[in-house]
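Example record

One chain of 428 residues, shown exactly as stored in the release files.
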Amino acid sequence: MSADDPHNVFITRETVAGDSDSETSIAGKSVAVKDNISTAGVRTTCGSEMLAEYVPPYSATVVERVLDAGADVVGKTNMDEFGMGTTTETSAFGPTENPVDPERVPGGSSGGSAAAVAAGEADLALGSDTGGSVRCPAAFCGVVGIKPTYGLVSRYGLVAYANSLEQIGPIAPTVEEAAALLDAIAGPDPNDGTTRPEGENSDYAAAADGDVDGLTVGIPTELFEGADERVVETVEAAIDDLEAQGAETVEVSLPSVEHAVQAYYVIAMSEASSNLARFDGVRYGHRAESEGNWNEAFAETREAFGAEVKRRILLGTYALSAGYHDKYYKKAQDARAWIRQDFEDAFEEVDVIASPTMPVLPFELGESLDDPLQMYLADANTTPANLANLPAISVPAGEADGLPVGLQLVGRKFDEETVIRAASAVEE
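Predicted structure tokens for this chain:
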């Protein structure tokens, strides 16, 4: 940490100027970019010793769109190594502090991006969300974070962790500002075959009008059970405010979410074990100076991975190994289909589904490092939206014991407008 970065928000501080002639709503704004999103000529480390000196030759599509919209990139933010964590403590560059309470974590894995916005180090930020990595730090830092529908935003230039789950999303002080950044980065990309073909033009920022009269909000008891009572009380008060503004609440059941964390980690770790095989010391990144054969050099090179990354690679490789594929990976995919179906059934009755973003208040620094399971279970409310490829937002619901609490709203596929509208009413 340094005097000009007291919370260890940035890994690299470097400004890339946007198009000065642009007149979009984010023109002139400063944007911090998570350090797993490629920026041409600017170091992109993924929070890892493996890529400590890697400088990409091209920029991610979202970065190009931000610059074209007239915003300035002001640095690359700290993150859990390769996006693997919930606290931004697994970074090879040290942990980021939560600006709200420097004794606590900012959430993860996009903790640097959320902390940058919360601390006023950037107007807006980009993060990536594989199982809650935009929404978790948004909730812990008291800002707004959006995980778009899978396919709405290009992933070209995002260093892959788990391809079928992750999306790049905006973080901002308000819902309208987050929606304006989403307007800038959303849309089809010929470089990413998973993006949705050109559809109707959307104005997400205009949707932040706070009008929830007649909106039906689903309340899934499964996502409230076991949560910290202080979190539940704060979220329920925010939902009561929505009702006072004309929304209707309906209890819904999502029995499959009981298995969401297990399914998520099997799928995510399996995809990670495949994606991270590319870091072999031959093409780019860290290379061990070994005098042994190729296998020994390969093994020594991969010692640059941190403990959490090694853990997930090993577990993912095990889940995909002969004899265990059907026992773990196939079952996880079956659970994913069940979760998707439960959401579809619920959305026949309601417009959005509300829950606490995180079932706990921000951890104290160091609290969860010795207990990875505690960290994994904290993702219980956020992983279902990634497994079902649905849009979700975390919006500040209030405070408990002086710490931020986030309300999560999940919507139908590509119905970001309704989610944004409901979230803006929570703000009011």
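Notes: The chain has a mean pLDDT of 95.
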